[in-house]
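Bit of a strange request maybe. I'm writing a small parser for structure token strings and I need a real example to test against, not something I typed by hand. Could someone generate the tokens for this chain?
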Amino acid sequence: MGREFLDIFETWAQSYDSSVYGYDEQYRDVFDGYEAILNTVVEKSGNVVLEFGVGTGNLTKKLLEAGKTVYGIEPSAPMRELAMEKLEGVSIQDGDFLQFPFPKEAIDTIVSTYAFHHLTDEEKEHAIRKYGKLLTKGGKIVFADTAFIDREAYEAMIAEAKQKGFVDLAEDLQREYYTTIPILERIFTTNGFTVTFTPMNRFVWLMEAVKQ
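Reply from user aminoacidic:
Good idea to test on real output. This should exercise your parser:
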């Protein structure tokens, strides 16, 4: 359920924002256009939003500034603390993609950035099936996350990272559960969604899925 990576994020919490804003050379391409990616997720979102993997609250802040009602879910205690400091008291609940407290009101959008790859493909399917039952017709899932057009592209990116001496990035790509666009498309469509995929940088795709 992604919680096997909590130790990494609790270590990364204090330096996470410096990484996403380009100060870590190994992850510069992963977070290229970070502000634009967040802004696009906000633009695609409805009015009442459930956000998974709040992290330090960068997307949450933009959603709130756009006038959205946000229910935040974050499994890492240090990340939650940083987010609540940044957002001045906004409540962010402990939970993950599969086990989380349900919002008190109907939601129209489920969002996440840079987090869905913490689930295995089987867990991804379980999550999307669950969200399909939570959303009504026309409800949306808007995720931005690292994925690959096919397995060959994934293997090539690992080889490139190793060639550049980006040891942390190569280990990350091999450790976590990065998947391919065809697998994601199947998961969404077989669970009642139409989905489009838009490349945002060399690593990240915007996934916009609408409940039918």
